[in-house]
Amino acid sequence: MSDTLPAPSTPAAPERKVSGVPIRLEGVTKRYSGQDRPAVDSVSLDIAAGETVMFVGPSGCGKTTLLKMINRLIEPSDGRIHLGDEDVTSQDPDQLRRRIGYVIQAGGLFPHMTVGTNVGMVPRMLGWEKQRVTERIDELLDLVGLDPDVYRDRYPKELSGGQQQRVGVARALAADPPVLLMDEPFGAVDPITRQRLQDELIRIQLELGKTIVFVTHDFDEAVKLGDKIVIFDVGARIVQYDTPEAILAEPAEEYVADFVGAGATLKQLTLTRVNSLELRQVTTASVGDDAAEAVARARAAGDDFVVVLDKRGRPISWPTLAEVSRMSTVPPTVDERLPVVGLGATLNDALDTMLAASQGGVVVLGRRDGMAGVVSIEAIMEAIQRTRQETAG
Amino acid sequence: MWDFVVDRRGQIAYQAFQHVSLVVQCVVLGTLIALVLAALVYRSALATSVANAVSAVGLTIPAFALLGFLLAPFGFGITPAVIAVTFYAALPVLRNAVVGLAGVDRALIESARGMGMSRMATLLRVELPLAWPVILAGVRVSTQMVMGIAAIAAYVLGPGLGGFIFTGLARLGGANSVNSALTGTIAIVLLALVLDLLLLLLGRLTTPRGIRV
């Protein structure tokens, strides 16, 4: 089944990989009896394959109803829905949903099943062989940054909110569906965890290239994650459908400008990503390495700290040289407060993370949570200056 | 009394076996009926309240009266006993099953449906397992209750330890009459405790680790 995913060893392709299919809504309408105005009023929308499209709007505007009509958890009263070349409006809904990943708030994991069973749910329904399901579970847990050996047999209640949400994403991706629907998935976690989950989603999407439809009420989240943003008003009326840059630069109506909020110059900060900065390469050491040798290497490179990587190459701490030289080998201690962001994180996120950890820099994670480099507060300030000059001029 | 028990140990053991066998079979049957009924009604608010009312009213019918009614169509013997005991066994399970199924988090059901599970699969793989601890609590209540009701079933000449009680009470003042009634009563209480313990064990074994408290 690895033929559906890029082999882990292939370097990131310069062009974006697309494994999704386009979605096309034609005059999709939902009327509830006893209400004079339809909840969703004749919406037509084209979503390109492999794009992440964010649905934003005030609560009760019909964005969630529209999302749920794509996998027909809510049956449309009128209109057609196309997935790729197929009209799925009258297809068997259970069969249809097995081809569409669905992620809800807090993951919606089944508490009476292990993490592995949860993730393997859809492949088993599709009749995959046992061996293939087992391999797929491990592959997906690895993809969302959870060690399969540690987490496969745990129960959801033994996981943190962020971990549960990761499993939720893994479960939705299990049968490699071309389309992923996400209904305010990160609404129930704390800001720092939310930001990490967002980074992770960006990284996963870069690897997989699914067509993602994502409902949120958080405009910053929409700007960060979306290739395109749809702004809805009541009745799921589409007010503006464009790239985040275009919406920020030219809000289509007063309504959008209000929704986007003031301080649009600083909002541009959420448009600049960490991967557009030059990452500083620093000395790394693996757990168990000789400490003196690591210190010597760091001194030679002019660093005053080393980043410690675990056996899977993920950064776990960044002790100063003074700390390291007191030990004989590089310690396996995990620094829970180590500030990390993903490559897709915004400058806003990076600044937030530094402030929360009271650190002058942040470790940037690349593929499979490996280290991509370090960004310092100076580099961010410089980028802010640059952006402000650009917008001013 | 000890002599009474020792003299009739064969008969007591046989009646005890009959009693437990009647109760266990009727509880299993009653549970199945209750689960099917609960699965039919729990999605509708109206049907749910009807089911709750039926189980509340049903439990207030005196067992004697019900057995009396059943005598007319079915005569004496095992049939009216089984019907009555199953009826009472089903009611607490029905109530708990409806409550348990209604208590399953809507988000989990939506999650199950959203990944392409059919209604039936959602019920069997998600809703029933999650409601299971509550259902099992109902089974325990109903087992305790029908241990006593099965004794009354001896009135219609059903099997079980009720025979000792009725014989004893009928010959009150006669030789061994109190011994007979006491033996029947104590044996029922002891067996009820043993059954409850077994059900507790069943609960431990059948409740998934993830939802154990």
UniProtKB/TrEMBL annotation, chain A:
SMART domains: AAA
Gene Ontology terms: biological process: glycine betaine transport
Highest rank taxon of the organism: Bacteria
EC number: 7.6.2.9
Keywords of this entry: ATP-binding, CBS domain, Nucleotide-binding, Repeat, Transport
UniProt domain CBS: residue ranges: 327-390
GO molecular function, one term: ATP binding
Cited PANTHER family: OSMOPROTECTANT IMPORT ATP-BINDING PROTEIN OSMV
Database matches in NCBIfam families: proV
Family that this chain belongs to: Belongs to the ABC transporter superfamily.
Protein known as: ABC-type quaternary amine transporter
Species for this entry: Blastococcus xanthinilyticus
UniProtKB/TrEMBL annotation, chain B:
Alphabetized UniProt keyword annotations: Membrane, Transmembrane, Transmembrane helix, Transport
Pfam families cross-referenced by the UniProt entry: BPD_transp_1
Signal peptide: none
SUPFAM superfamilies recorded: MetI-like (SSF161098)
BP GO terms, sorted: glycine betaine transport; transmembrane transport
Residues annotated as transmembrane: 20-42, 54-76, 82-109, 178-202
Compartments in which it is found: Cell membrane; Membrane
Topology within the bilayer: Multi-pass membrane protein
Cellular compartments per GO CC: plasma membrane
Every ABC transmembrane type-1 domain range: 16-199
PANTHER family associated with the record: GLYCINE BETAINE/L-PROLINE TRANSPORT SYSTEM PERMEASE PROTEIN PROW, OSMOPROTECTANT IMPORT PERMEASE PROTEIN OSMW
Family statement: Belongs to the binding-protein-dependent transport system permease family.
Protein name: Osmoprotectant transport system permease protein
Protein species of origin: Blastococcus xanthinilyticus
